[in-house]
Specification:
This protein is mainly α. It has one domain. It has helices at 2-16, 21-39, 44-55, 61-71, 77-105, 107-128. α2 packs across α4. It is globular, with a radius of gyration of 16 Å. The two termini are 28 Å apart. The relative contact order is 0.19. The mean pLDDT is 89.
Length: 138
């Protein structure tokens, strides 16, 4: 949480002055790397940098929320914001349930599947995700 507190406002400041998509892609990258980092933690000493990485997931949180609002039709902003979180939470819930089954196969399978799906989602967004309302990165 300390990492998140340190980066939240500065990143939001820079994201407001540039294109939002790169900040969101980096955030998805941090989400993607976290299960891989946990996989290789074999002591408390290595858990510390893994959870610093986890705190970096907040890197693009305000930017992602702003991007949702930028892409939503003017008269449906609240509805689109709610729909986004409904769909996201349904997908996350199903993934968590599936993760429980993968854990029974092995923790390695679970962490690698999480990494693989994160990588796939990050690439899909990086290649085809839309960005409106931002300026070019300075």
């Amino acid at each position: 949480m300390g990492t998140a507190l340190l980066i939240y406002i500065p990143v939001a400041y820079f994201a407001d002055r540039s294109a939002k998509k790169p900040f969101v892609v980096v955030t998805f990258g941090f989400f993607t790397l976290f299960p891989l980092a946990l996989l290789f933690c074999h002591s408390f000493t290595w858990l510390v940098p893994a959870f610093i990485l986890r705190g970096l997931k907040e890197f693009g949180e305000p930017t992602r929320k702003a991007m949702i609002m930028d892409l939503a039709p003017e008269d449906l902003k609240a509805a689109m914001f709610g729909l986004y979180y409904l769909l996201r939470d349904v997908v996350v819930s199903v993934a968590a349930f599936g993760g429980a089954f993968l854990w029974q196969v092995s923790p390695l399978t679970n962490f690698l599947a999480a990494f693989g799906f994160g990588l796939l989602g990050t690439l899909v967004f990086a290649l085809w995700g839309e960005d409106r309302g931002g300026r070019e990165i300075i």
